[in-house]
Write a structure and sequence with these properties.
With 95 residues, this protein is an alpha+beta fold. It has three helices and six strands, in the order H-E-H-E-H-E-E-E-E. It has a single domain, classed as Alpha-Beta Plaits (2-Layer Sandwich), CATH 3.30.70.
Length: 95
Amino acid sequence: MRHPRQIIIAPILTEKTNILRSSNNCYTFKVSLNANKIEIRKAIEKIFNVSVVNVNTIRQNGKPKRMGKYQGRRADWKKAIVKLKSGDSLPDFEI
């Protein structure tokens, strides 16, 4: 297994993810493209020392972008929505 910090890249903190966090105890993270649900679950449990109930993943395609006459694409990325056991929370993400 890879190091957990290579799997979990960054948290996603938006208004929508704050509503998910407060109502369903779900946290959203940007994760490695080739990470699977089992690796994500183990990485979250190891980094934050909490119990994970469920992991949902979404693959986002990069958007096409232009800079003058040059055209390119942003990179593809993967998002994971992690549901924690009731009673567990990540205090670093509380606002």
